[in-house]
Amino acid sequence: LESDSEQPIYIDSNNAVYDEKSQVSTYTGNVVATQGSIRIDADQLVVYLKDGAITKLVATGKPSRFKQLPAEGKDEMHGEGLINEFYPDKNLLIFMKNASVWQGDAKQSSEYIEYDTKNSLLKAGESNSDGKRVHSVIQPKTKKAQ
Amino acid sequence: MTSQRNFQIFVYVGLAALLSWWLVQLNEQRDAEIKIAENSPDFFSVGYYKKEMDLDGLPKSELSAARMEHYKADGSTHLQQPVMTLFNPNQNPWSIKAESGIMAADGDNLQLNGKAYINRDASKTNSALTINTSDLRVKLASHFAQTQAWAEIISPPNRTEGIGMEATFVSPIHLKLLSKVKGRYEIK
After folding, report:
1. HSE on the CB side for A92, CA within 13 Å?
2. Which of B131, B165, B185 to mutate to test the interface with A (most CBs of A within 10 A)?
3. Using alpha carbons only, what angle is made at residue A119 by residues A113 and A122, rounded to the nearest 5 degrees?
4. For this UniProt entry, which segments traverse the membrane (chain B) (predicted)?
C-alpha cells in the first residue's frame, strides 16, 4: 500500500544481536519483518542503522520471501531471492540470486530484480551483463470483479 | 541394706544422667548462638558509597546503596537499592539500578535481584541506551551481564525485547537477546 512506507518496521525472530560499533542488528531464526502490508520472511535479517534510522535491511534465506498488497483490490505482489536487500527510505527492494517476482499470472525471473515498493514498478536483469539481461515492466492488473 | 545401697547407686546414676543432659543442652544452645552469630552481618552501613579507581587513577566504578550488610560466613555483601556505575573511556558511564543485590566475596560477581534498570545517556558518538530487565548477574571485571528473564532494549526511537539477554558494557558494546525477539523500528 502507498502508506506502507510511513509505517514502523516490526521484526520477530528467535534471537538477535546488536553491535553498537558497527550499528548493526542481526536477527536470526524464523525472521518475519513487516511494514504495513509488506512482509519479508527470512532465515536471517541484518538491519543497518545510522543515527537510529534504518538505512538497509538484508534478508537471506533459501529463499527469502517477500509479499505486498500494492493497492486495495489489486493482486498481491510476491517475490523471492536468496538475498533480498530492502532500502525503506528509497522504497526499493532488490531481489538477487534465483530471484523471481510475480503478481497474478505474470512472473519475472532473473539474477537481479529491482522493485519499487511505493509505485509497484519492477525492473529485472543485471545492467552489467548482456548475457542475462531481462527487461520488463509489469503494470499491476486490476483484480477481476468477484 | 542392699536395697538401700541400690537406691543410692540409682540416685547417683540419675544425677549423672541429668547433669550430662543439661551439659548437652548448654552445648547445643551455644552452637546455635554461634551459628546465628556467623549468619548475621558482622558489619553494616547505611547510605553506603564506594568508588574504585583504575591504575591511571581514573574512576572505574562506583557503587552506592541505601543499606549494605557484610556477612562473615561467606564474605558476601548484601545491598538494598544498589546503584552501580561503570565508567568507560570516551563514552558516557553506564548506570545499573536494582531493588536489591548481593556482591560475592570476590568483589566481581554481583547478583541483582528483582527489577533492574540499566541506562547510558546519549553522547556525541553514541545514542542513549536503556535496558529494562530483572534478576541480572553482573561480572564487573569484564563489564558483562546476563539474565534468563525478559529484557527490553530501548535506543530511541527503536525498541527490541526478548527473553534472556547477554550484554557487554565495554566498547564494542554487544547486546544479545536469546529468544522470542520482537523489534520495532520507527521510520523517519
Report:
1. 11
2. B185
3. 20
4. 7-24
Q: CA A118 → CA A33, A85, A89, A138, distances in Å?
A: 17, 15, 11, 14
Instruction: Assess: ipTM above 0.85.
Output: no
Q: Is the pLDDT of residue B79 over 90?
A: yes
Phi, psi angle pair for B17, to nearest 5°: -65, -45
Half-sphere exposure of B77 (CA within 13 A, CB side): 23
For residues A120 and A68, what is the distance between their CA atoms, to the nearest angstrom?
9
CA distance B86 to A101: 51
Spatial separation of the C-alpha atoms in residues B96 and A123, rounded to whole Å: 51
Map grid coordinates 527473553 to a residue: B163
Confirm or reject contact between A86 and chain B (CB < 8 A).
no
A136 residue type, one letter: S
What residues does each domain of chain B span? 1-31, 40-183
Quickly state the pLDDT bin for A131 (edges 50, 70, 90): very low
pLDDT higher for A141 or B115? B115
DSSP run (H or E) holding A92: strand A92-103
CATH topology of domain B40-183: lipopolysaccharide transport protein A fold (2.60.450)
Contact B179 A15 (CB under 8 A): yes
Kindly list the residues from chain B whose CB atom is less than 8 angstroms away from the CB atom of residue A20.
126, 129, 171-175
Q: How far apart are CA B13 and CA B19, in angstroms?
A: 10
Cell numbers for B66? 541505601
**Interface membership of B109 toward A (CB under 8 Å):** no
Residue-by-residue DSSP string for B22-79: HHHHHHHHHHHHHHHHHTSEEEEEEEEEEEEE-TTS-EEEEEEEEEEEEETTT--EEE
Q: How confident is the model at residue A66 (pLDDT cuts 50, 70, 90)?
A: very high
pLDDT at position B70 is 93
